From TrEMBL:
This is WD repeat-containing protein slp1. Belongs to the WD repeat CDC20/Fizzy family. It comes from Pichia kudriavzevii (Yeast). The keyword Ubl conjugation does not apply. One of its GO terms (biological process) is cell division. One of its GO terms (molecular function) is ubiquitin ligase activator activity.
Amino acid sequence: MGSRMGSIFHNDLRISNCLIDRFENHTGEVCGLEWRSDGLQLASGGNDNVVNIWDSRLTSNAIHTKTAHSAAVKALAWCPTQLSLLASGGGSACKKIHFWNTNTGNRVNTIDTESQVSSLTWGYSNGIGKEIVSTHGFPHNEVSVYSYPTLQKTGVIMNAHEGRILNSQLSPNGTVLATLGSDENLKFWKLFDEPPMEKDTTPSRIEKVIR
């Protein structure tokens, strides 16, 4: 969890002394945290306009500190099919989505959304492939969908809420986006197709016996 003082506390609630580590590199409130799916890297965003990338095995210092945003960074999303790809979104004075290669620390793409970025989520559509959806606050309060890596806008829901969108979450099957707005409404949007299942090439026990 992140604190207003800029500290990040790594807790394991399965044990009595649950604090197992502490990350220190933000000078403002921590307002975004996202673990990579393999648990090896943590992304943090702060009111200091900074994105930090941490290696869970080397916690004394951030492995990358990125200062490309000009506003607080709340929105963070790891690509599920490309583990080293991270998207980060800036607040109302920034309005940009930056894409990072977290192995090298290099910025690989940028989108100027012209609106406060409040959340980011990766998805998949048939015929298009990998996409990223961004939700927004002022001035548009919209939901936008972009293909990746072409960055072409493939869809938009204008004025999705009467107030700014605070956050979003994708359904377990990856097709429906839930958005929460400052208008106190929770809305559901069918945006994506189910991603194709990866074929398991591991021989079954029966095949092993036959061989």
